[in-house]
Amino acid sequence: MYAAGIQLILFMKHAATSTINKIxxxxxxxxxxxxPAGKSVLLLLLASALLSGCFLHYYKTNTTEQVxxxxxxxxxxxxxxxIVHFPDKIMGLQNVKLANDRxxxxxxxxxxxxxYYTAPxxxxxxxxxxxxxxQTLVEVHLYLxxxxxxxxxFVTLPLSNIKRLDVYxxxxxxxxxxxxxxxxxxTIGAWVVFTVILLIxxxxxxx
Length: 207
Description:
2 domains; 6-stranded mixed sheet; 5 helices
């Protein structure tokens, strides 16, 4: 009696699974058949959706409102690109020097390669494209309260006037986590795409 009950349960489970699979296959096939641009559009959209959030890189801002001479001296003496944020514009700095707690530099138009990530979210992981990583991770952003003087191409900025300092750095933890999730997502996604291709090549027959 017990064995018969087990067999009945297994039979019902198999029947239910088979029915669900047929319904799912029928729904997918029906969707493919009704696509206005054809079956290839489905695969393109599916692949784009699966890969859109994969293998992203992230940076962090290391934001501080306390700008010390020691920190600024270290930044000036390393290979960094300085960007100054005025209330009315954002500009680049060239030939940056530090003297008597004052930052001295030439004001220049912000180069395009340093203009992609000028509005980050503070203290959170910020996305960046891998192709921009090299130039982004050398950026130092200075935020001022006073507007820019259009008549000057050379500035002297007392460190006390800098209300915020961002030093961009790779967010290794967020980048690694996304990589792990991406590998899992691509693996599952490849299985989904393969299944859809099989349904397109060999449409299921329903009775």
